[in-house]
Design a protein that fits this description.
With 410 residues, the chain is of the alpha+beta class. The chain has two domains: 113 residues, Sandwich (Immunoglobulin-like); 243 residues, Aminopeptidase (3-Layer(aba) Sandwich), CATH 3.40.630. The protein has nine helices and 19 strands. It has an eight-stranded mixed beta sheet. Strands 1-2-5-11-7-8 form a six-stranded antiparallel beta sheet, with no helix packed on it. A five-stranded mixed beta sheet has the order 3-4-6-10-9, with no helix packed on it. The protein is globular. 41% of the residues are buried.
């Protein structure tokens, strides 16, 4: 049987389309992490009650995490909190509503699986206002934490951190874009495991052609809200109507991912996506759809407009403020950026000292992907669990301004 040359070429093109065209280059790391999908144990959505006490709790809302509710004695109830699966790090996240038939104080004791302990000071949302639980209402005996809550018939939310659901994130970036639509373009880079939209903001003025590219991302880990607050302050500053922002966005392009793991966020997960995987260990083989689609989007956009990736900032939260950096800097896209940026932060913020933890990424995390995959500077920008909002806003604003100054003056 004879085949025409045109048929052979067409067959090769079709095979390439299905086998190679949609693929992206994997990035090797020293230490492999298994990011194949794992079994997840979903929480049962329900309202629990202690009828004889007239006390109720519920997890029937986005971002909730509550796995059981039982009476311990006349004045204390047990709150059961379990992760979505394991092994998992000690981000013992919780969020529930609580109320009572009659006004009363009631005690709630947190119960976690063996090996995990309480991490977050409770945040209380009452009358649509968030506050931190007063220290006098929190009691610790060995590893057991009990809190006293003042209840009424109006439900309060008790959570490890302020809630920022995928809807609230959408409301934020939609409002942020108003009046800026000519240079802030909202797109979707795909869908999560459960079909939630994955939004991305494509930001530049003039033409995208040939501009160097900065990538910003956040909410890979659901409870890490303080890092998201820094991301918000950072991006808001970049988009301010200023001469600095004008000059910066005429020279550079930003791709910003405001919520990388919407399933994990809305499901109230401690750390993982709906497939039970830490997405910030998937920046090598891209087994999870959120990371695979983000990498495809970045790669496609950079290639289409001849953009060189020079910097990636991944906003997270941990026990304290810290910047995780790679030691390899010479011959990268911005060999002096980290030193110049940190020096500028210390100069601009009174009594501030940068806390840097430097080490080349051995696990497949985003900062390593920027380095090994693109020879670009990658930084994990971590904000402490207890860092006050005012400090977060100041840090986000100053760090954005100093980044723009350094890069604009190159």
């Amino acid at each position: 049987m004879k085949f025409s040359s045109q048929y052979v070429v067409l067959s090769i093109c079709i095979a390439y389309l299905f086998l190679g065209c949609s693929s992206v280059k994997t990035v090797p790391f020293e230490n492999y992490v298994d990011t194949d999908s794992k079994k997840v144990y979903p929480q049962v959505k329900t309202t629990y009650s202690l009828e004889d006490k007239g006390v109720f709790v519920s997890n029937e809302f986005d971002c909730a995490r509550l796995n059981g509710f039982n009476q311990l004695n006349d004045s204390i109830a047990i709150i059961d909190i379990y992760p979505e699966n394991g092994p998992i790090n000690n981000s013992t996240y919780y969020a529930f509503k609580a109320w009572s038939k009659l006004p009363k104080d009631y005690y709630f004791q947190f119960k976690y699986p063996k090996g995990y302990k309480h991490r977050y000071i409770p945040k209380i949302k009452r009358n649509n206002v968030w506050s931190v639980l007063d220290a006098s209402k929190m009691y610790k005996q060995d590893s057991i934490v009990t809190v006293k809550l003042s209840l009424t018939s109006d439900p309060i939310i008790v959570a490890a951190q302020e809630l920022q659901s995928s809807k609230e994130v959408k409301d934020w970036y939609t409002n942020l874009m108003k009046g800026k639509e000519d240079y802030v373009r909202l797109e979707s880079f795909g869908n999560s495991v459960l079909g939630r939209n994955l939004p991305v903001l494509d930001i530049y003025k003039g033409s995208a052609q040939g501009k160097e590219l900065i990538v910003l991302l956040t909410r890979q880990h659901p409870p890490e809200v303080t890092g998201f607050f820094a991301f918000k302050a950072f991006l808001k500053t970049v988009l301010e109507d200023s001469k600095l922002s004008e000059a910066f966005l005429n020279k550079y392009r930003i791709i910003a991912f405001p919520i990388m793991n919407p399933d994990g966020v809305d499901l109230g997960h401690w750390r993982h996506n709906a497939n039970g995987v830490d997405t910030n260990r998937d920046w090598s083989k891209y087994n999870q759809p959120e990371i695979k689609q983000a990498v495809k989007y970045i790669t496609k956009q950079a290639k289409k407009y001849d953009n060189r990736i020079i910097l990636g900032l991944d906003f997270h939260s941990t026990w304290h403020d810290v910047f995780y950096t790679n030691k390899i800097r010479e011959n990268t896209t911005l060999p002096n950026f980290i030193e110049d940026w940190f020096a500028a932060l210390e100069h601009e913020i009174p009594d501030y000292k940068v806390n840097e933890a430097s080490g080349n990424s051995t696990k497949p995390v985003s900062k390593g992907w920027f380095l090994y995959g693109h020879n670009a500077v990658g930084i994990t920008y971590e904000i402490g669990d207890k860092t006050p909002k005012g400090s977060i806003d100041r840090m986000g604003k100053v760090s954005a301004n100093e980044m723009m100054k350094i890069l604009t003056n190159r």
